[in-house]
Design goal:
- The protein contains six helices and no strands.
- It has a single domain (16-96), classed as Orthogonal Bundle (434 Repressor (Amino-terminal Domain)), CATH 1.10.260.
- The two termini are 28 Å apart.
- Helices cover 62% and strands 0% of the residues.
- It has helices at 16-28, 32-39, 43-50, 58-68, 72-90, 92-96.
- By secondary structure, it is mainly alpha-helical.
Length: 104
């Protein structure tokens, strides 16, 4: 049984680039250059991702899941969580003016 999460986050969800930088690269002994080479992408792409200036795309999620043996949904879910949190912060005032509907 799932427990509903009704508490709003105060801090942002972890960006997938931070996960890569802080957890995956050290654990696998990778550098940004070796990661880029392993994924078949440019060092600039990896650098932007690690600096949290690029989002995970579906293709990148597939590449990362293949390399690390996890699911592409893991990477996309992390990115979606971050994107939703940032959007909620950015559009808070506008969103708060929308009144929820009640079923008839």
């Amino acid at each position: 049984m799932a427990i509903p999460n009704t508490i709003k986050r105060v801090i942002p969800p972890t960006h997938p680039g931070e996960m890569l930088r802080e957890d995956f690269l050290p654990d696998y002994g990778l550098t940004p250059t070796t990661l880029a080479s392993s994924l078949g992408v440019s060092r600039q792409t990896v650098n932007e991702l690690l600096r949290e200036r690029r989002a995970i795309t579906s293709v990148m999620a597939l590449r990362l899941s293949r390399l690390f043996g996890n699911s592409p949904e893991f990477w996309l879910s992390a990115q979606d969580s971050r994107d939703l949190w940032e959007s909620e912060q950015r559009y808070y005032e506008e969103l708060s003016r929308i009144l929820p509907l009640n079923a008839a």
